[in-house]
Specification:
Blueprint lengths: L4 E4 L14 H12 L3 E5 L10 H4 L5 E4 L4 E4 L2 E5 L4 H13 L2 E6 L4 E3 L1 H7 L3 H9 L4 E3 L12 E6 L2 H11 L3 E5 L4 E6 L4 H12 L6 E5 L5 H6 L2 E4 L5 H6 L2 E2 L7 H8 L4
Parallel strand pairs: 1-2, 1-12, 2-3, 7-8, 12-13, 13-14
Antiparallel strand pairs: 3-4, 4-5, 6-7, 6-9, 9-11, 10-11
């Protein structure tokens, strides 16, 4: 049997913030590896927010992070694309003009405005990050542009109507994923989970038709479409299910195990 490459999103796929990683998921990844296949993380998170030791100790062959801007295979860094300083300054100017509050995401840090995200909006994700990785968070105010090392970013739109023009300007250089009416995620054009999979497969010598991808959200659409077989989680959004070739069970109903079993990978 030819060696396959399987790519897994983290949040809502491998990992649930409330329940962690299912025992069946750990067993499934272990069996996948025992059967001689590759297993990779493929996430929108940048390296700064990949912190769970249990996740990182599951034996993955590498990871695609930051929506394809950062790639590691067997401990070797293959790619780390950072938004150039001049472009990042332009981005921050647009955000200020159109009242969009950013979280800038990089290899080592998340840069944010605590007053806006935590104090004013009680943002659950950033509150969780403050608890889990306080050493990887930096206040954006007061930092020079050359101190920022950013792969991608998210924004909170204070006024969604006003933000429309800003989003239009940013869309020239970034692909936008609409998480909700007021929350958006941005990846540099030319970089997404699908391009990350392609670069990784070129490195390891696996053809596209021998790839599988598991995902649940809008930022997984590129990976689900690129994969030879795209598998959406049962708890996933409708767009992910429509983009996939197969819908497995939800994350906490042994969805990873069931999906790998369905295609004879374990």
């Amino acid at each position: 049997m030819r060696k396959k490459a399987v790519f897994f999103d983290i949040d809502g796929t491998l990992y649930d913030f409330r329940t962690g990683i299912c025992d069946s998921t750990k067993e499934a990844v272990r069996k996948l590896k025992e059967n001689g296949h590759y297993a990779f993380i493929c996430t929108g998170r940048t390296m700064a927010s990949i912190f769970d030791r249990e996740l990182l100790s599951m034996g993955f062959d590498g990871l695609v992070a930051g929506c394809g801007t950062y790639i590691v295979n067997e401990g070797r860094l293959l790619l780390n694309y950072e938004i150039p300083e001049e472009k990042l300054k332009e981005v921050l100017d647009i955000m200020e003009t159109f009242r969009m509050t950013p979280v800038l995401e990089g290899e080592n840090y998340l840069y944010y405005c605590r007053e806006d995200y935590v104090v004013k909006h009680q943002d659950a994700y950033m509150i969780n990050m403050e608890h889990l990785i306080p050493e990887r968070l930096r206040e954006l105010d007061g930092l020079r542009i050359d101190e920022l090392h950013v792969n991608k970013f998210c924004v909170l739109c204070e006024d969604p109507v006003l933000a429309k023009e800003g989003l239009s300007l940013l869309s020239r250089d970034f692909d936008i994923m609409h998480l909700s009416e007021d929350r958006k995620e941005f990846a540099p054009k030319g970089y997404n989970k699908g391009t990350g999979m392609e670069r990784m497969c070129s490195r390891i010598g696996v053809e596209r038709f021998d790839t599988y991808a598991f995902g649940d959200s809008e930022n997984d659409l590129d990976m689900l479409k690129y994969a030879g077989v795209g598998i959406a989680m049962g708890n996933g959004v409708m767009a992910a299910k429509e983009a996939a070739d197969y819908v497995t069970r939800p994350i906490n109903e042994h969805g990873i195990y069931a999906g790998l079993k369905e295609f004879g990978l374990i």
